Amino acid sequence: MALGDHKTYFDFGIPTFNGLFLSFLLFYSMLLYIELVKNPRKKYILYFIGVILIPIIIISRQVLITLIIQLTIIHHLYIRRINFSRLLPVIILVIILFGVVGNFRTGLDNFLYISQYKGEQMNYFLSGFYWAYIYLTMQLAHINNLITYIDFDYGYGKFMFESFLPTVFLDFFYSNVTYSKPVFLVHPNFTVSSYMTSPFLDFGILGLCFYTFIIGALSCYVYHNLRLETTAKNFMIYVVLLQIIMMSFFVDFLLYLPVSFQFCWILVLKKYYQ
């Protein structure tokens, strides 16, 4: 990717293993951050820096943003309440970093051409604000196109699970499915379209309503468990789910393996951190 190749890390090696590794990376970053507060030893600091660098090296903005949001939630709820009015410089820095990573991965000129930018020459570092604007508005156009696009066959789970289940299972369950996702994107390079896209493509408006109900019920259950028993396990599950809900305007992380498999790591490895 450093040489300008537009492939992602899922195009190399075993995609499922990549997803599991990144999910463990996110889970481990939460543990490290909590441990650093109680025991700021040098080796933990080095481990934490290494964890932060990995999504930057592989140019994964989704993983990097997920990591930042989860650590921010932990800091706010567990360590010290954040005065968000004083957080503006950090937000600006994150937006600039988001743009730099996007420019390095896609190329600024290519991004401006795709987004049909017609203004004056864009500053390389300030382009992050234009990236943010595109990400905030493009999914609304996609959802509008999707809802008004009435001529397509339902996927019956294919599109919801394509970023979660291993390829071998997808090929087994949907081997007879020959149709592809209908074209509703304003441009194929802009794929952000919120959590609503996949359930609507798979089961229509009723499926979307039911999936939204599941997310709401799961949120109530997780919050109730945390209020009932404030353990490390319940707290981290709450942090991951809160991050998923916060990002649902952009993408469905509940069925995105690198994010949602954190729940499994939290449950399976709880005896090592409780």
Could you explain how this protein is built, in words?
Helices cover 64% and strands 0% of the residues. The chain starts with 14 loop residues before the first helix and ends in a 6-residue tail after the last helix. With 274 residues, the protein is mostly helical. Residues 1-7 have low confidence and may be disordered. The longest helix has 32 residues, at 197-228. The protein is globular, with a radius of gyration of 20 Å. Helix 4 packs across helix 6, helix 9 packs antiparallel against helix 10 and helix 10 packs antiparallel against helix 12 (262-268).
In brief, what are we looking at here?
The chain has 274 residues and is mostly helical. The protein has helices spanning 15-38, 42-57, 61-79, 88-106, 108-114, 127-148, 158-161, 167-173, 197-228, 232-246, 257-260, 262-268. The two termini are 39 Å apart.
Topology:
Blueprint: H1 15-38, H2 42-57, H3 61-79, H4 88-106, H5 108-114, H6 127-148, H7 158-161, H8 167-173, H9 197-228, H10 232-246, H11 257-260, H12 262-268
Helix pairs in contact: 1-2, 1-3, 3-10, 4-5, 4-6, 9-10, 10-12
Supply database-style keywords.
64% helix, mainly alpha
Averaged pLDDT: 83
Uncertain residue ranges:
1-7
The major beta sheet can be summarized as: none
Q: Which band does the percent of strand residues land in? A: under 5%
Indicate the structural class.
Answer: mainly alpha
Report Rg.
Answer: 20 Å
Spatial separation of the terminal alpha carbons: 39 Å
Order of helices and strands: HHHHHHHHHHHH
Tell me the overall shape.
Answer: globular
Total beta-strand segments: 0
Assign a percent range to the helix content. Answer: 55-70%
